[in-house]
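Aim 2, interim progress. The first record below pairs a target sequence with its structure tokens.
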Amino acid sequence: MTSVAGQAGWVPDEDDQPPRPHFSNVEEFVTTFLSPHIQRNLGGTMTWCSKWWKHTEAVSRLTSLWMAWEHQRLQGATGMSVWWLHHADPHMNVLLSRDAGPFARCKPDEHRQGKDLPCTPAPPNMWMSSAFSDTGS
């Protein structure tokens, strides 16, 4: 996990260490916090896969939610409200979407792997002018 040093709400002094994460990993966050707090009627327009950890997009989104939660918990009065409105709600809407989410092919207690987005390789020199390319300076 990246350090929270330099982020709003926490400024280290010479002897201070960054706050330790509340959860040790994304699985602990999902099983002990998110799952008990997100109690939705699955069916209709929502679905979930109990093997969420087999879905690359889900792992990325849930890890992002966890990291955002770890940051927002240190923000005081409105931190959790910001997390729910600007992080949890949008990500959970995508994750739980029966039609378009990463679990769309799964059935209750039955994991089905989705397919990668189709990709065609870019032309050989397309990324040469990228702002992130190594310029040797």
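The second target in this work package is listed in the same format:
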Amino acid sequence: MRYSIQEVAAKTGLSSYTLRYYDKAGLLPFVARNTAGYRIFTDGDLVLLHTIMCLKNTGMAISDIRRYIDDVMAGPTSIADRKALLTAHRAKVLAKQQQLTENLREVDYKLGLYAAPDAVTQVQGELAAARADKAANGLADPYPAS
């Protein structure tokens, strides 16, 4: 199948503007143009675009995505480079995932604290401890009076 930029925008949830930006940034060298100069996408292009979106959504820099696409366009001789790039990116994604997991634990802890029957008492205890810590270190109390 062949798709216009508007159809691809509707299929992917990306705006036409974003698709044009990706093209200008060198991320879509595989997209052909018709005689009028309009971008024409194919099903294969959508597969690569899905990969680009995945890499972008997981925090890969545009310059690294461009490097990956350049490697894809170079063919099988670049498999080692692609593997190295994706391996490094995977490590970053896993580290971010671990950080998110730890942050989620803290959010869940706080939600549990605020849902507890003695939430007011617990929060007052945390505030008292924070005030005592400030006082013990000779610092001003930044907390509003209750």
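The chain has two domains: 1-74, 82-137. This observation will shape the mutagenesis plan for the next reporting period.
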